[in-house]
Amino acid sequence: MAARRRIELSRERPLRRSRAGAPHGGTVVAIGGHEDRVGDKHILRAVADRLGHGGKLVVCTVATEEPHELWEEYESAFRSLDVPHVYRLDIESREDASSERAMRVLEGATGVFFTGGDQLKITSQIGDTPTYARIREIFEQGGVVAGTSAGASVMSETMLVTNNSEASDRISALLMAPGLGFASDMLIDQHFSERGRMARLIGAISQNPRVLGVGIDEDTALILEHERCFRVLGAGGVFVVDASKTTRTSICEEKAERMLSTFGIAVHMLTQGDRFDLPSRTPSSHSSESMERYETAVKRGATGD
Amino acid sequence: MAARRRIELSRERPLRRSRAGAPHGGTVVAIGGHEDRVGDKHILRAVADRLGHGGKLVVCTVATEEPHELWEEYESAFRSLDVPHVYRLDIESREDASSERAMRVLEGATGVFFTGGDQLKITSQIGDTPTYARIREIFEQGGVVAGTSAGASVMSETMLVTNNSEASDRISALLMAPGLGFASDMLIDQHFSERGRMARLIGAISQNPRVLGVGIDEDTALILEHERCFRVLGAGGVFVVDASKTTRTSICEEKAERMLSTFGIAVHMLTQGDRFDLPSRTPSSHSSESMERYETAVKRGATGD
């Protein structure tokens, strides 16, 4: 193939996994943290409504230092949303993640929910264990993998790791690690507007614009279906940060303690109802009410997806 | 002129005041808040070095609730930077701003520095008073107009007003008011990354993309010369947010309590040394050290500008 044609083809169809042909996989629900758990629970309701008739949800508290408290909150929330089977999977070691107990808890599950906490606890404890393999299987069979805060970060291929230093937007403070990879070609950040994380997200994707940056506000979620398109649900915004047209970045030049300079980033600010097509990296606008109608259809099992 | 040609011309030379021919006006130094006042004082030093030989700086404490404390801090900082004449202008009423005392304080000044506080106190007390006219005159004669935090916001034509509600990124919470207008065609926001203000800045400029959004991090400044080009100085970033290529915004559709959705915003993340040309809205990359050399040249009066 002629060199020029190769370049044209790459522009027309960038090599992104999400461009792959037939729809496959289940649903990712990534939540920016602090979702409503006692009122309307619109986001947890979206998780519940995707579990199928007689669904079974496993709440995985591995990330948190307060597993008992969080489990009680989520158990109460999901039971009030009429999820027939809600189980707890607490993992404190890789041994737990490889145990028969874990396999029994995950047996028959149609959804897994990761609480907030420390994303490295999730990946270091369950990465490459039977628990991870089983969750992947649930996902590939059309199940739901959901998570909030740290639980949303781990959906990424490569994830941002919380850095408690004040200078979290310096290059040296940009800590990343392999995520669970349920959201292909994406790097998801959470508590996004609330914690002012635009600079660190731009810094992360500048290191490799193949990956799309997605920043989710609190009480807001993206719902990604078949790894192709996500929809926004909730009170805040979802920021899509695309470095593919970036004209310059100082990532390899500047001293590590400095901030990055990057020019020509495309940013889309999406709110409830809006959709984003991953293969073409194109947002489309839909009303907030359209999302409520869609969710009602999901509940009735009538989305046709 | 043919319609098509008119459109082409408008694309080639958008109608921005900053495109105007000959350089004029003085220097704006807009600081994102919390600039170093006791150590190296690199940003206050940049103000001091632009006052000229035997310069006189007037520190205007109108914005703050703690005028005495701030005055003492800034007096000490600027005296340590060898500014020969540092005066205080405290204004508590429009009468003060129209007083002979204020005129005497501003007599012979080559620079004015606005402290942080409440931007509405600055504009409501001095707007359209002899104090404002005199500061404008100082600026047009080539002087320096500087400000930090609220003092940076007022440099804008139209400024964002602090809203203490948690939902500051909702359309209804986007409060704006006329600023002092020293930075043409710009809307300056401060404490930018630290307070997570990207959504509100995008919200503001989506209402009129004629104005360029500029978000300044703490201990970071933009130095705007002749209303045409600014340079970045300091530890953090300056985010330029350009809505001119925005493909869609929900500003007129959504209910006021919702967040905005806006697609196709261009964002440039600039750090020390980087420059931004306002007429063409184009960033250019320069090393951090180049800015240190430039500042040394300014101090020696050898920039050739």
Commentary on this structure:
Chain A has helices at 3-12, 42-48, 67-80, 94-97, 100-106, 119-126, 130-140, 150-153, 198-206, 288-300; strands at 27-31, 56-60, 85-89, 111-114, 144-148, 158-160, 176-178, 186-189, 212-216, 220-225, 229-234, 238-242, 248-249, 262-270, 275-277, 282-284. In chain A, strand 15 (275-277) and strand 16 (282-284) form a beta hairpin. By secondary structure, the first copy, chain A, is α/β, with parallel strands linked by helices. Chain A binds chain B through residues 169, 192-199, 202, 217, 235-237, 239, 241, 248, 250, 253-255, 258-272, 274, 283, 285, 287-288, and chain B through 169, 192-199, 202, 217, 235-237, 239, 241, 248, 250, 253-254, 258-272, 274, 283, 285, 287-288.
Give a brief description:
Two copies of one chain form a homodimer. Chain A is α/β, with parallel strands linked by helices and 305 residues long. Chain A contains ten helices and 16 strands.
Count, helices of chain A? 10
- Most extensive contact: A-B, 41 and 40 residues
Q: Determine the N-to-C terminus distance of chain A.
A: 37 Å
Helix and strand run of chain A: HEHEHEHHEHHEHEEEHEEEEEEEEH
Based on DSSP secondary structure assignment, what is the total number of beta strands of chain A? 16
Shape category of chain A: globular
Task: Report Rg of chain A.
Answer: 19 Å
